[in-house]
Amino acid sequence: MPEIVPMPKLGFDMAEGKLVRKVKKEGEAVQKGDILAEIETDKATVEVESSVSGVVKGWLVEEGQPVPVGASMAVIGAPDEVVDLHVYRAGSGGAAPAVTSAPASASTAPSAPPVTQPSVTREAGTPSAAAPASPIARRIADEAGIDIHLVAGTGPGGRVTKKDVEAYLGATPAPALPRSPAPAPVVTAPEDQIVPLTRLRQIIARRMTESKQTVPQFYVTTEIDMAAAMDLRKQINALLPDERKASVNDLVVKAAALALRQFPNVNASFAGDKVIRKGRVNVGIAVAVEGGLLTVVVKDTDQKPVAQIAAEAKAMIARARAGKVQGADIEGSTFSVSNLGMYDAENFIAIINPPEAALLAIGAVREIPVVKDGALAPGLRLKVTCSADHRVTDGAEVAQFLQAVKKNLEEPLRLLVG
Question: Hey, where are the domains in the chain?
Fold first, then answer.
């Protein structure tokens, strides 16, 4: 029996996606798990895998067409199976009908045959009352200060052309003109550039506007001593291959995930008359991509070792920046982090990504002078700021959550045994 491939739902508020590319064409064999198509969602371009094996019997939508979630996109069947696509296309809404141009009107009168006029030329220097001339010929003659009537026309009907005027000027010495000072250079101001918004940037604009307008957000910042964490990171990375080496962000992600166990209101979402505390701790990591941002998600972050978090995050970030993100990469976040430390940002405030109740903004680890035991000494410090939904949690609870994050990083062996 033929299998229908629907437009998948890849986000809680996703209503439709756009078919960007048919990876498997009609008539091609496909195995379960093969990439069938690329679709563009609110967040990213996502590769859609086939859930069955067979042959692509046909596509019900065209590339570039928006498709509602759940609507049929393609039909896959057995190699010898006969499928009537018209039945499926009628039920799916199908592609937009082709637009054909209207036939030319039968009442259109035939054009009259062209009238050929004899070519008339004049001797140079013989004035003509009419002196037909092309606009550019008149302009050149006016700029040169000559009478167009004195130029012999070689065009149809004696029309004076640009070449006629140029030939006349070449044979006539130009009058001496008084020398005038060179004009001042004209400074042209750069023009404004209009850049249409990409679909991703439109979605970011809409969601961030909704977040700021509808979520009562507050912000709490703390500073963390990172000396012990940086030493531990150095020791861990000395034992790991490049693809599993931990970044500062990986350490903070793990520290936050462990703290979220203690403070479930920070790992939650607001739902009108109730708060939904999430059972799993899935930390989303904001990734800068061309045209905006998207969030990749490390599932069950609190239960994974730092090296595994690093490996999964690296792989998903690479796919996101290559435009090959998978649906599972961007689904299910319960809390997010955004890191600008690589750009030497000391600290910043980020906007909550609904429906999550909180987000952690991470700055750069900086070497600064600090006071230890009454004496000035060098130290490594990191500032983090938690943005939180005041409908779900309060300042005291978020401050305690940040204390737990701080403790996990200042006593970093907790990251290995938690």
Answer: 3-92, 119-170, 216-417
- Which tokens is 194 given? 């209009």
Residue given tokens 């790992």 in the structure block: 267
Give the CATH number of domain 3-92; options: 3.40.50.1370, 3.40.50.300, 2.40.50.100, 3.90.1070.20.
2.40.50.100
Kind plus residue range of the DSSP H or E element containing 213? helix 199-214
Cα separation, 352 vs 121, whole angstroms: 81
Nearest to 39 by CA among 358, 416, 326, 409: 326
Tens of pLDDT, residue by residue over 144-192, are 777 877 788 887 777 788 888 788 877 655 455 556 667 777 788 898 9
267 DSSP β-pair partners: none
Which is more confidently placed, 114 or 366?
366
DSSP, collapsed to helix, strand or coil, labels residue 381 as strand
Cα 282 versus chain centre, distance: 23
Which pLDDT does position 175 carry in this prediction?
Answer: 52
Question: Of the residues 207, 381, 390, 407, which is catalytic?
Answer: 390
**CA 248 vs CA 241, 254, 294, 303, 311: distances in Å:** 16, 10, 20, 18, 13
Tell me whether residue 149 is one of the annotated catalytic residues: no
Q: Tell me the average pLDDT across 382-408.
A: 98
DSSP state of 133: B
Q: Which CATH superfamily is domain 216-417 in?
A: Chloramphenicol acetyltransferase-like domain (3.30.559.10)
Burial class (CB in 10 A: 0-12, 13-18, 19+), 47: buried
Residues 6 or more apart whose CB falls under 8 angstroms from that of 164 comprise 137, 151, 152, 153, 154, 155
CATH class of 119-170: few secondary structures
pTM exceeds 0.70: no
CA proximity to 335, closest of 375, 376, 290, 279: 279
CB atoms within 10 A of CB 176: 6
64-101 burial, b for 16+ CB within 10 Å, e for fewer?
ebebeeebbbbbbbeeeeebebeebbeebebeeeeeee
Taking a C-beta distance cutoff of 8 angstroms, is the pair 278, 369 a contact? no
Residues 75-121 pLDDT 10s: 998 888 888 887 777 655 444 333 333 333 333 344 444 434 444 44
